[in-house]
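Lab notes, practical 5.
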Amino acid sequence: MKHVKILFLVIFFFLSLNLVSCVPGGVEPAQGWSGVACYDGMLYVGSMDSKIVKVDPTTPSIEWSYTIASAPSQGMLSCGRTSALAAIYGTPVPTEDLVYVGAYNGKVYALNRDTGYERWIYPKEGYIGPIVANTVVDGDNAIYVSSSDGRVYALNTSYGEFRWSSEPLSEKLWTTLTIKDDIIYLSTYENNIYTLSTKNGNLLPRTFKADAGFSSSPIIYQDTLFVGSFDNNLYAIKVGSDGLLWKFPGGRWFWSTPVSKDNIVYAGCLDGKVYAINAETGDLEWEFDTGSPIVSSPVLDADLLIVASESGDVYVFDTNIESNDEVMVPVRTMSINAVIKGSLCVQEGIIYVRAQDNYLYALDIEKGLVTWSIPVSGKKES
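Output from the prediction step:
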């Protein structure tokens, strides 16, 4: 009963963030909150009209775009039997040759990074459960994705051949997995953190069970796993242990994935605050209140911490500066006046944000200004 209640709350929260939107005739337009990926001087992003787009930031202009195919509506978040466009929630994952992304139509795509041409789609026929999480590429051979059918899938990177799928682990898997030493770590909206073998997807005897479900995707730093929970706490769990190291209380859910550096974990919370927490003790180092929920995960760039609030404000903190009575002041504050939910990326002193107005923004950290913005509706089809 507790699991059903948690799932209901998650779905209600997703709906409040406009996960899907219905129009007359039972058709749902694409939405999503795909983030921006920086790679080799270029930008890769999923648009709100179901396109994967490559952008040259020096121009700025769209190099290519690829439209994600539609599929029959699935799951309790759908409002009709057909889908006009497939929403993209995961951030594209560019590699040397290909760009990978999973979509809400239940398919995984691999596109040529230079041209945008399709290399492969999995599955070729039909679909798995809708994909909300990011795909994860491990080395040169394997790509992993968690799906709304409750399973984890492993595919070959070059041509998308099926390797294995796990047993059903949850009613829906919407969190992004993480990998360390050939072990997959996966948090669920129930109250489990599962460990799986990357070789065959078999469950390993290292499951962590909590009193509440987990709201964020996990990260691993210095052999400790950090993850947000629906009980409004950030958990620290020693890798390989089934015991809790510590938990830190927030005002609401820690929805976004935390980041870590120099023994500090930085976590954005739906209470509008970003917390800097000692990774070993769980003690508060400092906090800052943005005044708006933090859905997008914080980003580290050398000594800078970048945090975006849902209201459209972007804050830059210098992690070398000491706080004053546990309260930190940003060195830069910029605003794009548009809702931010997707992840950011930073490249050569520029922050790139794809907002919910379907525009891509470039924010210059040194100048503290938005230097350009372009729509990413995708005019150049590959």
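Observations recorded by the TA: Residues 2-16 form the longest helix (15 residues). Residues 19-27, 78-83 have pLDDT under 50 and may be disordered.
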